[in-house]
Design brief:
The complex is a heterodimer of chains A (about 90) and B (about 100).
Chain A: H1 2-5, H2 9-36, E1 40-45, E2 50-58, E3 64-72, E4 75-83, E5 87-93
Antiparallel strand pairs in A: 1-2, 1-5, 2-3, 3-4
Chain B: H1 9-13, E1 18-24, E2 29-37, E3 44-49, E4 55-60, E5 65-73, H2 76-85
Antiparallel strand pairs in B: 1-2, 1-5, 2-3, 3-4
Classes of the chains: A alpha+beta (about 90), B alpha+beta (about 100).
Chain lengths: ~90, ~100
């Protein structure tokens, strides 16, 4: 794949642009995660399940969210991990 | 894998600072200004300014993004307002 990128100057230039944009977008997403820590977050899951919890942290690949006081129909879970593929959307107030 | 997740960062970047309506896989619609699209998960971060001080944030996970409809472009003031949303203590000037 390296030879494919070194074929012309325009390719390496657009690759650089893409990488720069990628890092800006990623940094902004990480900022939004930091802003969410210790806040009450609503999670919309599959089958129209909606749960509320205090957000703690996410792993780097955004595969799991660590939350506290997860309010489920079966009661409150003190600590829990939410699998991100099970989440459709989430929301919080700043 | 859906179409949205296959876009590249330059394509996602075109949505930043624009007001959009995202239809998620559960058919729910979310409207707001795009703050960013995470290049790893393709999740869209939407900010909705309800009053002058408070803002609410909705994030649609990349795997659940259906249709993304652009409603209007943001101006420079909106871009600045969005940039300041997740900076603690508001905007800080670090150089003179």
């Amino acid at each position: 794949t390296i030879s494919a990128f070194s074929e012309s100057g325009t390719d390496s230039c657009s690759l650089r642009d893409e990488q720069r944009t990628r890092s800006v977008l990623r940094e902004r997403y990480l900022r939004s995660l930091i802003a969410m820590s210790q806040k009450q977050v609503w999670f919309n899951m599959h089958e129209r399940v909606r749960v509320e919890a205090k957000f703690g942290a996410s792993d780097i690949d955004v595969l799991n969210f660590q939350v506290s006081d997860l309010q489920t129909p079966l009661g409150i879970q003190k600590e829990a991990l939410i699998r991100c593929p099970d989440v459709i959307s989430y929301s919080f107030e700043l | 894998m859906n179409e949205w997740r296959q876009k590249n960062p330059l394509e996602w970047n075109k949505y930043v600072n624009k007001e959009v309506r995202v239809t998620a896989s559960d058919k729910q619609q979310h409207q707001g200004w795009v703050y960013t699209v995470d290049p790893v998960s393709a999740s869209v971060v939407l900010v909705d300014f309800q009053s002058t001080r408070k803002a609410s944030v909705a994030v649609v996970m990349g795997h659940a993004v259906g249709e993304v409809e652009v409603l209007r472009d943001g101006d420079e003031a909106m871009a600045e307002r969005l940039s300041a949303v997740f900076v603690p203590g508001g905007r800080q000037v670090l150089s003179q």
